[in-house]
């Protein structure tokens, strides 16, 4: 059933204002010239032949990496900066497989005491296989850094697209929400709660399909650990801001917040005055849906943003909702 939460809320930081990290100061992964070799068919590096450095899950359920090293990859452009490092476009030399390489400094992981969190993130994400969940193919490390080999999402962050466009149309939103509902349903069946659904954690691949990308706050349910929550308050459900027990229904609430933000451009309980004000609006479910949102869309948002977690519309019913049906002919096949 759940985890007790300690709140330690910070403002939603635009990525470019992230604090300077070792990764920025010590830029050692110099992009290499792209080779002109013809491309072979792309297969995930894990499935490549003799290098088979697949992450394995041993009996004590610790995830292990084997043998990958930085020289197995050609490094391309910087895809972006996170709090703890950078992501690079990369190509595995043996197979020409294109991927993203996320590089973090061990010293920073230690300094911020997030090694455990990262280990959990890697352990969870490695075992997930879903078209709308970003694949983590493997990881390796050297003396100073940890590297994650990730599926490449060519169209970048949903957050950036949303800021550029202001909001999304109902048909685009319905497609994203159906993809999210499918992915969350898969996670919940595996007893994983994501707990940090927001546009910053969603990427888009070359086809414009959505990929859940960040498992930093995910947990296996049931879970009884206490956690310090950093990040935006906007997506937290009443039970989490009130420090009560919570379960997988937290992701249903966040899906409602996400749907609102996609259609309106700002999250429903945002209050720029103070965190306290946002907290109050969440706890009261102080929801105002603008009149330009269609009645069917408003109905789905309202069914997800229910104070009582048991009253939130289950994910399978989200996929059957008339608004999804109207815009997404085959919500199970997307
Ligand atoms: N697999 C990927 N495909 C394409 N772009 C990516 C990929 N992974 C990361 N990026 C880009 O690089 C940026 C930094 O990624 P990173 O995972 O290091 O940080 P983050 O998780 O977005 O941020 P934070 O560390 O603050 O949580 C992302 O915001 C995104 O724009």
From TrEMBL:
GO terms, biological process: attachment of spindle microtubules to kinetochore; homologous chromosome segregation; meiotic spindle checkpoint signaling; regulation of cytokinesis; regulation of mitotic cell cycle spindle assembly checkpoint; regulation of organelle assembly; response to mitotic cell cycle spindle assembly checkpoint signaling
Entry annotated with the keyword Kinase: yes
Polar residues composition-biased segments: 46-62
Crosslinked residue numbers (Glycyl lysine isopeptide (Lys-Gly) (interchain with G-Cter in SUMO2)): 198
Coiled-coil annotated spans: none
Domain (Protein kinase): residue spans on this chain: 73-324
Record CDD domains: STKc_Aurora
GO CC entries: chromosome passenger complex; kinetochore; spindle midzone
Residues the entry annotates as binding ATP: 83, 102, 151-153, 200-201, 214
Top enzyme class: transferase
Region Disordered: start-end pairs: 11-63
Record keywords: ATP-binding, Kinase, Nucleotide-binding, Serine/threonine-protein kinase, Signal, Transferase
Family: Belongs to the protein kinase superfamily. Ser/Thr protein kinase family. Aurora subfamily.
Protein name, entry field: Aurora kinase
Lineage: Eukaryota, Fungi, Fungi incertae sedis, Zoopagomycota, Kickxellomycotina
């Amino acid at each position: 059933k759940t985890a007790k939460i300690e709140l330690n809320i910070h403002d939603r930081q635009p990525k470019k204002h992230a604090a300077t990290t070792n990764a920025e100061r010590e830029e050692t992964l110099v992009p290499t010239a792209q080779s002109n070799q013809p491309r072979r068919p792309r297969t995930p590096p894990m499935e490549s032949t003799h290098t088979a450095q697949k992450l394995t899950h041993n009996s004590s359920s610790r995830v292990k990496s084997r043998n990958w090293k930085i020289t197995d990859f050609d490094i391309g452009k910087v895809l972006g900066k996170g709090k703890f490092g950078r992501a690079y476009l990369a190509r595995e030399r043996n197979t020409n497989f294109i991927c993203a390489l996320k590089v973090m400094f061990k010293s920073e992981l230690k300094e911020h005491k997030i090694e455990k969190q990262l280990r959990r993130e890697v352990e969870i994400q490695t075992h997930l296989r879903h078209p709308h969940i970003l694949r983590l193919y493997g990881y390796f490390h050297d003396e100073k850094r940890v590297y994650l080999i990730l599926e490449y999402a060519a169209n970048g962050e949903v957050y950036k697209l949303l800021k550029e466009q202001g909001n999304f149309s109902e048909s685009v939103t319905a497609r994203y929400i159906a993809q999210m509902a499918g992915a969350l349903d898969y996670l919940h069946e595996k007893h994983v709660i994501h707990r940090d659904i927001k546009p910053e954690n969603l990427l888009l691949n070359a086809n414009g399909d959505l990929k859940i990308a960040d498992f930093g706050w995910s947990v296996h349910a049931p879970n009884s650990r206490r956690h310090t929550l950093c990040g935006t308050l906007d997506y937290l459900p009443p039970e989490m801001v009130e420090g009560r027990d919570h379960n997988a229904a937290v992701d249903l609430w966040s899906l409602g917040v996400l749907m609102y933000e996609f259609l309106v451009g700002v999250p429903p309980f945002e209050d720029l005055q103070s965190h306290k004000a946002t907290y109050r609006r969440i706890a009261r479910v102080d929801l105002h849906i603008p009149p330009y949102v269609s009645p069917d869309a408003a109905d789905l948002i309202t069914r997800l943003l229910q104070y009582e977690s048991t009253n939130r519309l289950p994910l399978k019913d989200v996929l059957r909702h008339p608004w999804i049906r109207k815009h997404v002919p085959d919500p199970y096949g997307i």
